[in-house]
Amino acid sequence: MGADVKPLRTAAEAALIARFQAAANSLPGDSATGRRRTEAFDRFEKTGLPTRRIEEFHYTDLRALLRDAPEPAARPDAAVAATVLAHNAAFPAPLAIPSLDFVNGYLVSQPPAIAGVDIVALDAALAAGDALTGRIGALELAQDNPMLALNTAFMAEGAIVRVSKEAGDAGLQLRFANAADAPFSSAPRVLVIVDDGASLDLIETHAGASGLAYQVNAVVEIIAGDGARVNHTRINAEGDAAQAVSTLSVSLGADVRFSSFGLTTGPAMSRHQIFLGCAGEGADITIGGATMLRGRQFADTTLTLDHAVPNCNSRELFKTVLDDESTGVFQGKIIVRQHAQKTDGRMMSAALLLAENATMNNKPELEIFADDVQCAHGATCGQLDDDLLFYLMARGLPRKQAEALMVEAFLGEPLEFVAREDVRDNLVALVEGWLAARG
Amino acid sequence: MLEIRNLVVDIDDKRILNGLNLTVNKGEVAAIMGPNGSGKSTLSYVISGKEDYTVVDGEILLDGENILELDPAERAALGVFLAFQYPLEIPGVGTMTFLKAVMNAQRKARGEAELTTPDLMRRVREAAEELSINQEMLKRPLNFGFSGGEKKRMEILQMALLEPKLCILDETDSGLDIDALKIVADGVNALRSPDRSFLVITHYQRLLDYIVPDTVHVMANGRIVRTGGKELALELEANGYADYRQQAAE
Question: What single-letter DSSP state applies at residue B239?
Fold first, then answer.
């Protein structure tokens, strides 16, 4: 293995390299930002699109999956953007929460006026040398991730949101909608800073046109200050031919209450990576997920949670329902550093296989270097319980309806992580819609 | 109402029911008693349509129609109800949601209009009160974290709401203390009617002090070996099942 061996580039990698070389000078930001881009691209270039050889991508060979790297879409005009948003809503019932809207990766809405919340477009902030841009990509834990690095290299569209304590219980939606005549790629990036003692409900939805092979590499970063409260909900209802890579990077201060719940159901291929680092003691963390797959869908959720300081609690619960020939991946790694005593971490991944040819790969890991901790992980993979099915049918529920009720019951637990009733009702409607489509 | 003719049933090539014959008339409360392993629970499952069993021979007629080809949901819609010995927990599904789903599923199968939510709520509330089931229990996921007695009461609540023709009670007395047993028995007795039949499966005579049967059948080795009136239960209580084990083995 010589260091001088040059890896063969795929068409997608070659296109990305050429695009970076061509665009590097026109991307927004000062020379320091330019250097960050170059460093980030170098990191990406070192590995290229990750393959199975990288442990974190063992089940998800992005080099094989992302065969080409389509050009970004043109910036949509207002009328087109409005149409795309109207036809690609992730939620059945709209929420009465202000939103930032993105179409094909472009920020298309004026930032909503919310008292105590400052929102600036990312490209403008980079071009103006806004001090907050220095906080982008701050989480060390995520530094080496090639897909995050790729997003950093090209970052332009997106926003920086800062929530101050004066905002009270603030709410914000990030709505991403995708539709175009031809395949395209997009790489939006949003940084959300929640100040000390501030509170935010952040609802992130992704939806897109079916039959369109677009690629997304989206990043949301959350930095929560001491005593902050953040409830994050993420819906991936991308189009059925979409390939969606996403990264959630979270840095928590002391005594933060943080919860994140993700529902994945739409795209042909998805990889959602969560990096969470505790920088202050006393954080309370809940991370949940529900994934519903059918056909030949593939969905990977990969979580890395770093307990770097003492006295933090974390609960992780992920449920995956797989029908037909779909494939699910859950990788969860909890790291407990040597001085992170009194950590309490519990992680569970459960899969329900509805068909013989569905596949689930579960890989929970604990890396514990402290000695006074409580940590547990578990992974299960099962089918519908015949006895319960009989019980429900004996009460008069036809088989499909009984199965649907059992799937709903299976997914119900992580859905409880979502505190807002209007959001949870939408999630339940999405689950019911998925089950109804099962026929 | 229910007529079982020469029923032969295997599970994993092991014979459980061996030419069983049984008739339960309209409005009759029939008790099935027998030692452990005599096939009592199997009988309840086979009437309800559980899949694990192989029906080798025989017929089960409900109002003259052979129901063996029907799945459990279709049988339920025809009026078969099984109160389980061990009711199952359904975390994540609220009891009211469940009740609404099952009541409307049966109504739909029978071509009846679905119940409106207020109508459903009123029916559930009234029936729940009779069984000392409080509103708090109705808000919880079905049977989730319920005590043994609460689960059995919830079975009887479902029975009351679904208004079946044939109620099968599988060891409903198991795990109940005397107070819980009385509540459950009162609930069952309130449902007795000239149009409704009961098959009360029990190992002990105790339940039959509270749900007084019209007929008592003794089951051993997969068939009915003796039939009598309610006094037969008392005789069994006094003498045990030893005679019947022997008789069936001969």
Answer: H
Asked if B209 contacts B13 with a C-beta cutoff of 8 angstroms, the reply is no
**What Cα–Cα distance (Å) separates residue B107 from each residue in A109, A120, B96?**
49, 56, 16
| Contact call for A394 and B49, based on CB within 8 A | yes
Ranges of H-type helices in chain B: 40-48, 72-78, 95-109, 117-130, 135-139, 148-162, 178-191, 206-210, 231-239, 242-249
A137-149, pLDDT tens digit by residue?
999 999 899 999 9
Q: How far apart are CA A45 and CA A9, in angstroms?
A: 10
Extended beta strands in A253-387, E state:
257-264, 269-278, 284-293, 298-307, 313-322, 327-336, 344-353, 359-368, 374-382
d(CA A6, CA A46): 10
CB contacts, 8 Å: A402 with chain B: 73
CA distance A295 to A325: 6
B93 → closest Cβ in A390, A393, A408:
A408
**CB atoms B92 and A410 under 8 Å:** yes
pLDDT digits (tens, 9 = 90+) for B54-105: 999 999 999 999 999 999 999 999 999 999 999 999 887 889 989 999 999 9
| Cβ separation B102–A397 shorter than 8 A | yes
Phi and psi torsions of B95, nearest 5° = -60, -45
Residue B111 forms contact with A (CB below 8 Å): no
Q: Quickly tell me which residue has 């192989």 as its tokens.
A: B54
In chain B, the residue whose alpha carbon lies closest to the alpha carbon of A405 is B93
Stated as kind and residue range, the H or E segment containing B216 is strand B215-220
pLDDT tens readout for residues A371-386 = 999 999 999 999 999 9
pLDDT (mean) for A24-44? 94
B164 near A CB under 8 A: no
Residues of chain A positioned with their CB less than 8 A from the CB of B102: 392, 395-397
Average pLDDT score over residue span B120-139: 90
- Select from A348, A233, A250 the least CA-distant residue to A308: A250
Q: Are B206 and B182 within 8 A, CB to CB? A: no
Q: Does B48 touch chain A (CB under 8 A)?
A: yes
Answer for the pair A361, A328: CB distance below 8 angstroms, yes or no.
yes
| Contact between A409 and B77 using a beta-carbon 8 Å cutoff | no
User: H or E segment at A190?
Assistant: strand A189-194
Q: Would you state the structure tokens that stand for residue A156, as one six-digit string?
A: 């332009």
Question: Which residue, chain included where needed, has tokens 């009328």?
Answer: A79
Average of per-residue pLDDT values in chain B: 91
Query: Three-state secondary structure along A106-164?
Result: EECCCCCCECCEEEEEHHHHHHHCCHHHHHCCCCHHHCCCHHHHHHHHHCCCEEEEEEC
Q: Could you count the other beta carbons within 10 Å of the beta carbon of residue A347?
A: 24
Residue A2 has pLDDT above 50, yes or no: no
Contact A307, A338 (CB under 8 A): no
Based on its alpha-carbon atoms, the radius of gyration of chain B, rounded to whole angstroms, reads 18
Domains (range + CATH), chain B: 2-91+166-249 (3.40.50.300)
SS (H, E, C) A350-395: EEEECCCCCEEEEEEEEEECCCCCEEEEEEEEECCCHHHHHHHHHC
Whether residue B51 and residue A386 make contact (CB cut-off 8 A), yes or no, is: yes
**Residue B76 forms contact with A (CB below 8 Å):** yes
For residue A38, what are its two tokens?
């170059």
Q: Given CB atoms, is B141 within the 8 Å cutoff of chain A? A: yes
Average pLDDT for chain A: 94
